[in-house]
Specification:
Layout (H helix, E strand, L loop, with lengths): L2 H4 L4 E2 L5 H27 L3 H29 L11 E2 L15 H25 L3 H17 L2 H9 L2 H33 L1 H11 L2 H26 L10 H18 L9 H26 L4 H23 L2
Parallel strand pairs: 1-2
Helix pairs in contact: 2-3, 2-4, 3-5, 3-6, 4-5, 7-9, 7-10, 7-11, 7-12, 8-9, 8-12, 9-10, 11-12
């Protein structure tokens, strides 16, 4: 019973025999080859050139596995003990990043380099623990190979990715980032910043009570965030449009909607009405210019048009709130 809590069901690496170390290396190479092929499959549709890089890396791991199996066959025979990473205490683990879609280029390249660095440390330690000259040489050679593989992704990238191919894939990745995060987040920020202006400032000028105004702003911001988030999730599953995960888009929209509204609601926690209102004015101004900047930076909207749309829209909604509040 207590072994479940203290992890004694796992073997210490120091307790493994030479045969078990070889078996662990074989299973680890098999797993890494599968991971690289899964990376390739996940990238193939949108990043075919980078997918070819990971196909080559998987073939490299297959070569390592074959060499290890031959070494095991020569020293210990045909039967390879079943021992895997999860059976060894303190052994490095692989996070299931390859199950996440879509895969980001920088993310999988960084993960590949981490994998090779971990494998290098394993082979160095394993070589120290074996007394068989042939196995020790093989493990040492694999340690050197894994160390050079830290730059393998870069070297294979040079093979498969020319300047044109790299630019094409970077443009595809940027487009996906904009569709999944920037566009929904911008829509939320615009809705939260603009649509809550009328109720917040109407409440402010109607009541002159900062606390009541804050409560109205809080309710309007959170309510709008929830509504916009669920609307984004339900509107498009991303399969046909290619806009990415609806959950990610919904979170981006909902969070930014709430942030946009809270920006000019939070100043009303200040008890003095005009101090709170002036600070809220300043924050609204900053929010509107932030929206115009994002439109220009990511959506390639000309500054003049972005400014006109955002400032004019915000001014009209703000004036509406003041007029209703003073009615």
């Amino acid at each position: 019973m207590f072994s479940r809590f203290f992890g004694s069901q796992r073997r210490a690496f120091s307790s493994l025999s030479e045969q078990e170390v070889l078996a662990l290396a074989i299973s680890s190479e098999e797993d890494d080859a599968r991971i690289y092929r899964a990376y390739a499959d996940g990238l193939r549709d949108e990043y075919p050139h980078s997918a070819a890089v990971f196909d080559d890396m998987a073939e490299e791991e297959d070569g390592h596995r074959a060499a290890l199996i031959e070494a095991h066959r020569a020293r210990f025979g045909e039967r390879i003990p079943l021992i895997r990473r999860e059976h060894v205490r303190g052994y490095y683990e692989r996070k299931p990043d390859w199950l996440v879609r879509p895969l980001g280029l920088d993310r999988v390249r960084a993960q590949a380099e981490r994998m090779e660095e971990q494998a290098h440390r394993f082979y160095v330690e394993a070589a120290r623990r074996t007394e068989d000259a042939g196995i020790r040489k093989l493990l040492g050679d694999l340690a050197i190979a894994e160390k050079t593989h830290e730059s393998l992704a870069h070297r294979l990238s040079e093979k498969h990715l020319g300047e044109d191919e790299r630019a094409e894939e970077e443009q595809t990745e940027r487009k996906q980032f904009i569709l999944t995060y920037v566009q929904p987040g911008l829509a939320g920020l615009m809705d939260g910043s603009v649509s809550t202006l009328a109720p917040i400032f109407a409440a402010a000028f109607a009541t002159g009570d900062t606390w009541q105004t804050f409560l109205v702003g809080l309710a309007a911001s959170i309510g709008a965030g929830i509504s916009m988030g669920f609307t984004e999730v339900a509107s498009d599953d991303g399969v046909i449009s290619g806009r990415g995960s609806p959950i990610k888009r919904g979170l981006a929209t909902g969070i930014m909607t709430t942030v946009g509204g809270l920006g000019h609601a939070l100043p009303y926690l200040i008890p003095h009405f005009w101090t709170a209102t002036i600070i809220a004015f300043i924050i609204v101004f900053i929010e509107l210019w932030a929206i115009a900047w994002i439109q220009n930076r990511y959506m390639e909207t000309p500054w003049s048009r972005a400014t006109f749309q955002v400032v004019l829209g915000g001014a009209l909604v703000f004036a509406t709130g003041m007029l209703i509040g003073n009615a």
